[in-house]
Structures are given as structure tokens and as C-alpha cells.
Design goal:
The chain is an alpha+beta fold and 115 residues long. The protein is 50% helix and 23% strand. A three-stranded antiparallel sheet has the order 1-2-3, with helices on one face. α1 packs across α2. The longest helix is centred in the N-terminal third of the chain and has 42 residues. The radius of gyration is 24 Å and the shape is elongated.
Amino acid sequence: MKQGRSKQRGMSLWGVLAAVFGVLIVFWIAIEVAPEYLTATTVQKCVEDAKVAGGSNFSTVQQRFDSCLTTNGIRDLSYKDLTPKGSAVTIAWTRKLSIVGNISLLLEFEAQAPK
């Protein structure tokens, strides 16, 4: 009776290393991107709060928005970046995150407060 070799099951060492490397890359990019999305949600809330507080007076909306940005420590944006669109108020901005060498991520954000 011949005894055959049992087939190997599971991943090889190289497979495990490749999987760990892939997970680390995804984790690293998530750590770089997450603060930008937290800032975007804060800016969205500031735009909405400023629009509610300022009503239809655009200069009041700008003042409230600037106050909210200052309170939350956001120095990259200002009230001058707000643009009126009809009765709504919007702000758009981009962020370029350098990942490795000449590899970068370009993130585009837009926050809008409806009527």
C-alpha cells in the first residue's frame, strides 16, 4: 500500500508576510487620512451652525463661521473661503498628503449649508 504525501494547507511564510505588509500599508494610509476627514466633519458642522445663526445675512454667517473655526483650532480655512450659492453657503478645499516619495493623495472636500 502506497502512502501518499498529505497536501499542505495554509499560507506560506511569504504569504503571511505579504498579508501583514498589505495590512500595514492600509493602516498607515488610514492614519494619515482620518484626521482630514475629522476636520471635514467639523467644518461641515461649523458651516451649518453659522448658517443657522446668521440666517440670510452673509457677513454674519462669515463671522460665525470664523468664530467656529477659531474655537475648533482650524487655521487652514477662513471665512473668506465661504461662497454664497443662492440661499445656501458652501466651502470647498483640497488637501495633498504625501505618502512616500513622489506618491501623494489628493483629498477634495466640500461642505454646504442648505437654505
